[in-house]
Prior knowledge:
alpha+beta, Tetrahydropterin Synthase, Chain A, three-stranded antiparallel β-sheet, 10 strands
Amino acid sequence: MAKMNLGDRNYGSISSGFRKLIIGTGITVGLGLAAIMGYDSTFTYIKPNEVGIKQSKFSEGLDKKNIYRGGEMYCTPPGVTFHTFPTTKITLDFNDRKMEADLEGKVAGYDHEPALKIPSSDGFQNTFEITIIYHITDAQRVRENSGIGEGYKEYVKTKVGPALLKTIGVIPAEGLITVTKRIDATRAAAVMLSGELTPVGMDVDDVLIRKFSYPESYQAKIHATVLQEQLGVTRIEQRKAAEREAEVKKIDSQGLANVEVEKQRAKSLVQTITAGYQNYQNTKNAEGELLVKKAEAEGQRQVNLAYEGAGAERILGVQMAKTTASAIKHIYVESCKDAGANPLDLTEMLSKFTARGGAK
């Protein structure tokens, strides 16, 4: 009779359970991957600042008529993809700045290239930092002429050089200093580039010269020319300053002469007014003095008339007595005899001084 091996029987049970677990896990993972792949191949989102062109790997091929707008989710069966193009402005920078070169690929709508060497009409190889701003107007035309993807960027670059050479390159090196000439050249370049890009679904917004520099050979020439020009300008300014100084002196002398004339006129006017005032004052003073003298004469006449009236002899005698008394300190008069004078007898005293009449 055969013996039963219990160890073998347990091992077979464990192996069977492990196999079931592996199979279940594989089925779950497969279903998850299938779901993810199915979702990815079923819906495509186009950003708001983009438009899309649909392409099928099957018989339909590339959709050459429709343009799908951005900001929406589109159903894409297996084998169908969307090629997107930006609708915002695209900046193409030509410069040798590393910081700006690092922005390429990090900032949407930014493209960077080294600075441009554009010869001037007189043969000097000048370096320019130029910015070109453009945008896509028709994605289907862009696709037809430059293909899908970012081929349109290379297409634009091929048109930039000839346009700048025909507009900026016709200016002599010395003329680049003039701002208006550079502005006119960039505007002409923008028009010329638009003429090249408009038929292929793009348009130029602006062409800007950010900076330019001359070669060393021309820098030395400019330095000498600038020194000469500065010397000429200095002499012109010195001459103008001398002319202005002479004009100022002339004006000052004329002003001083005018002031002196006005002073003399004012002085003469003051003298005339003063003379008139003094003449008026003298006249009034003379008239006043005449009136006073007339009044005094009239008073004297009245006094004289008074002396001619009754009692005039007595008044005269009194006046004479006053006069005599003021001149004579002492009068000795005999008073004890018949021929003597009595000071208290006024009538007798008047008779002795030969005054006419007597007191009654």
